[in-house]
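User: Show me a protein chain along with its predicted structure.
Assistant: Here is one chain, sequence first, then structure tokens.
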Amino acid sequence: MMCVIIQKKRFPGGPRDGSAYEFDASGRLQKITSLGNETTFTYDVSGRLERIDHLATGRSLQFQYNTQGMITSISGPITPAIPNGIWAMYQYDANQNLTSVAYAEGSGFDYTYTDPGDIHNLTEKRDKMGHLLATWSYDDQDRVTENWSRDGRGISIQYTGFNNRSVTDAYGSTSTYSFSVLNGYKAFTEKNGGVPCPNCGGSVVKKTYNSDLRVTEIRYANGLVYRFDDFDANGNATLMTIQPGTPQEKTILRTFHPQIRAKLSQSEPSVLGAGDKITIWDYDDDGNDTPNENPTLLLHRKIERGFTRDIAANITPYEHITTYSYDNKGNILSIDGPLPGTADTTTFTYDAVTGDLLSITRPVVGTTTYSQYGADGRVGRITDPNGNATLYTHDGRGRVLTMTREGNTTMYAYNAAGDIASITQPNSVTTSFTYDTAYGRLTRIEDALGNSTRLGYDDQGNRIQVSRYNDADQLVYRKRFSFHGPGYPGKLWKQINPDDTFTQYTYDSSGNIAAMTDASGNTTSYSYDLLNRMTAVIQPGNAITAYTYDSQNNLTSVTDAENHTTAYVHDDLGRLGAATSPDTGTTTYSYDPAGNLTAKQDANGTTISYTYDELNRLTAIHFPDPAQDITYSYDQGANGKGKLTGMADPSGTTTYFYDALGRLEKEEVTLDGIT
């Protein structure tokens, strides 16, 4: 068989993960090779995909067809949950439209096609309990005119011209989207009208492109601008400028991997004014210090460079390195860093045949093991460093059915819609979940005693009521919410208390809270800059608190209503280096490469230091008077690994004991020699 090999190429608009693809002369995919793993594709005499094999694990999928060549089922590994090996089944109508997808455990989806203009247009999707999940409508040109989801959210579309679309959302807000044809592609260029996205913190209102269809500028509703320049061969912008031409202008330089969607480096000005903050993602595996001479497909080092301050407030450079190693299948074998040396290394092992994870060994606490994998690759047993095992069983969709530890089993049940139906604890106490019949939204959570929480929704799927009832079905608590405020529908407008008083919110164009009025009628207002950073809080009585930030979005000052300012200095890792206030003077801070606070010095020169183990757990607090020191110990005694097991301070000692389920079993306190 003749094959055309396309190796590590970027497909237009497709993924760039460095994989190699092999096709036969008919254009059928034969093999995908990635990081030493091979997936092969086999076809029957009719040219239909017959099976997919993952060679490293030995796992495969097989495809069955009807006489019309439509897939009727997919078979995979045989497991206790899927004894016949059939993972999914498919049904079709007389027009060969897909009408049903059924999974092994009974859940799935049904599809309906009732568009009078085209018998193949999907118009409705439901789950196997009949809950309506989504609907579609079309015009006489087969264009979608409406799409709604089960939460009542969606859009209706009017095609007002070749390059314009009017889109009305679930709240009745209409926006007009304009498109331009660039090099044969239709691209979004501008949005007008409507309100910003209720859940995404502002909307893109305009995009500008170059002749290669690369986005060169993005403008947001609040005026924020991002500019992109100096594109590489793969279309990545190596120069990004935020708020160009303004006092807040910030430039970020980037380089990118030639084969995969990953950055190789990023550089921006240091917040301490001493140079640049640089992050390097080194994909070389040659072991030398020069990064990215010949990038592989795997990250081998992360190098962070920049500037920080020591306890004496001197600006000093830092370089923190985290290294990664892999096996020949691309599985991670070790992670070391960012602390110097190898004491903070975490290691991993895998099954030589299947590649299933067998163990994770962390510093100090030891090894967690994974075993009893099913034919589908799902873990059946996890044993913690204390030797305590947790056993799992799964259903046909990979969801946990039972979890057993020390003979205590928690059981999970699901309904035909695929939602959780009940959770039964080892003591046979069951929590049940109920959903509405129309859309399958969670409406009731009830415990074993009959106490329940009930939920209500508006037409857009927003949760507008939470009520709690006792076992006698008496209302004991209720809170309501409204999302239909003027100007910004979809955001929380009112939070209504049981006595019908309420807290009310308004928002700015980016979706930030602009004002909050409490139940007593007191209003607090909030202001933000273009980066959505809070710049002022105005409390009742015109009491104003102001905030400023550095170029990396760290808080640099807070000025209260009496004009008292507390100033903050951060380093290039966002860590607080100094705080200066009128009350306490200047306090300075220093850190280790892992970001742990190692020392704090107040305005009087008093220094408190902190030490940590290789898992970054606090082990001691050291005061100027050693007699005041506090120490912490871990991992001692039965079942103690990974837990705080002791603490000692000037008053005495405390020892903690745990059972095999990880629960605190006993706390032993010794004061003045008396336990």
